[in-house]
Amino acid sequence: MGAEERDGAKERARAQSRPRVRLDQPRAPRRSLLPEYDPEAFGRLSEKIARFLGTGRFIVWMTVLIVLWVVWNVAAPDHLRFDKYPFIFLTLMLSLQASYAAPLILLAQNRQDDRDRVSREQDRKQNERSLADTEYLTREIAALRLGLGEVATRDWIRSELQDLVKELELRQMVDAESEERRER
Fold this sequence. Notes:
By secondary structure, this protein is mainly α. It is built from five helices and no strands. It has helices at 3-17, 39-53, 56-75, 88-149, 154-183.
């Protein structure tokens, strides 16, 4: 038995020992070591936070918190102060708040951009349908006008009948006059 035959036999044995993969069925989900989260729920939460960060209420609360922080750390007894004069801890907290606020605002803006893109696409499709409907109706009206040019309308028939009635009345009058003349 040659080396190639042995390698081929080993490969066949390995292929037979593996379970067959069915292509008509989805694979079972793999377990992940990372925690799972719902990106839509996270996105909705980020939009709520970004919406709150853009309000006057947030500015008022933030101003009140900073004023209380500074007043406490200036006026409180030394053993109760937790952030001495240069207020380094306050600076750290504001930097932390800003570092979280910026990405949340960007995430909310990206979600809004996605919604706007979908809305624009739907509007564009609706406009195309409206334009196609308008063009169709325009062609139909033009065809009706051409067709009506060859059809007798009620007003035209009425005027023709009135002309015929007048003509008949005139003939009756002429015939009545000619009979009167004959009788004389």
